[in-house]
Structure formats: C-alpha cells, structure tokens
Amino acid sequence: MKRKLFIATSLSAALSACSAIGNKLNDSPTFHKVLNSAEDVNEVFIGTRGRVREYTERDISANFPLDSLDTPSDSTYTQLIRDHFASYRLTVDGLVEHPQHLSLSQLQHLMNVTQITRHDCVEGWSAIAKWQGVRLADVLALARPRPNARYVVFYSFDRDSNDTQYYESLSLEQAAHPQTLLALRQNGKPITPDRGAPVRLRIPTQLGYKSAKWVYRLQMVASLKDLYGGKGGYWEDQGYEWYAGV
Asked: What are the distances in angstroms from CA 239 to CA 63, 114, 227, 229?
C-alpha cells in the first residue's frame, strides 16, 4: 500500500512538471480526482505517524544536488549575507497568542535535533545528509497557536522570475512530526546560501519540494484557500500535490 501511494503522488508531480503527457493528464479533472483521493489516504495512514529511516555517517552522500529556484539576489537577502545573518529574524505570527521574532543565535541555542535522513526529489534522485536544527513543533509551541489554527505557512526570501512568492505549508499534524525540523546545519556546517541559509525546512517524510529554503516567516492560519493560488504552496499552485509523502 505505502509503495503504491508514493508512486501515485510522485507520478503526479513528475508528469505535471516534465512531459507533454503530463500536461495533458494535468488538464484532466478525473486524473486529479484519483490522485487527490490517494493523497488523502497517504496523509492519514503514513505521513503523520511513521518515521523514515535514519542513516549513519558512512551513508552520507558525497554529492547533494541543488534542487530549487535560484538563490535570492534581492537587496534584503544580500544584506543578510553581508552581515552573516546577524540581522536575520524568524517571525512566527498569525493565529498565535505570542508572536515570535527569533534571531539566528536564539535558534542556534534552541537547536535540539540531529538526523541523518534521505532527501527524495520529485525529479527522481535521492541523497543522504546530516541535518541539525530545531524541531518545528518546539518553535511553534513558543508562539502558542490559537485553537482555530490549522496550518502553518512557510514564507521564503525566494521569488521566481515573475516575482511570485515562494511558499509552502503543512497541517499542524504534519508540523508536529518529530522528524520535521527547521534546519540550520548540513553535514556539520552552517547551511550555505545556495542551500537555503540561514534556515530551511527539512521534512524527510515528504518529497523534497516541501522542504522550503530561505525561510523567514511562519504564519499560522485557519485555511489555505485565500493564499496565492489556494493550493498551499508555490509548486502546488502549479499542479503538484499538497501532501507528497514518501
């Protein structure tokens, strides 16, 4: 069951992105109805409960490809690079009792997770790395989500060539998964700008496009329908599946 559901989810994203056949299928309401049904089952039975495998140091991949939009080049981000992220603040707001504005040093002080996990890209490749960071659930707990909060939205410094905001989202159940973290270090070193510095999302239970880079804001919301394309993420608004479990 798990293997079949994974194939259904990843097939949808791959076809949407990579082929003429995918473009035709992507226009079919019936095709999306079938995939969305599989996606619902995928989330209920796999993603919020099971843990993915954790590896050893000797399993770490020698090469970890880049897999995103271009590194942000706007004045805000380049200034952060120049000051070594001293002025960076991670905002946690929206439907919360205590909004947070956490510096990088505060996040480093909270750092409590080390995991060696596999990154599975929708393009078909995988790579293993060691990640260190803060458990996402612990950061959200600082802000105390309100009872009507159902999702957390991640905003990135990144924008595409049309100046469209890059963003992602998780349900609170997904955000509470013990392996979901805000990563600060990769393979023992601070994450570099081209890999999402200073903070990137790391979700080993879901396909790589869910692990947003260059994260600067976490917003708690009751619904995703009024955000941008209404599908819960930059890639999702273009036809990828919102829940992308491995």
From this structure: 29, 33, 15, 10
Domain residues of the chain, as ranges?
A: 53-238
Question: Phi-psi region for residue 27, left (φ > 0), alpha (ψ -120 to 50) or beta?
Answer: alpha
- Model confidence at 191: pLDDT above 80: yes
Write the DSSP assignment of 97-142 as a string of letters. SS-EEEEHHHHHHH--EEEEEEEE-TTS-EEEEEEEEEEHHHHHHH
**So what's the pLDDT on residue 3?**
34
Beta strands across the sheet bearing 165-171: 100-103, 89-94, 215-221, 151-159, 165-171
Q: Is the pLDDT of residue 22 over 60?
A: no
Domain 53-238: state its class. Answer: alpha beta
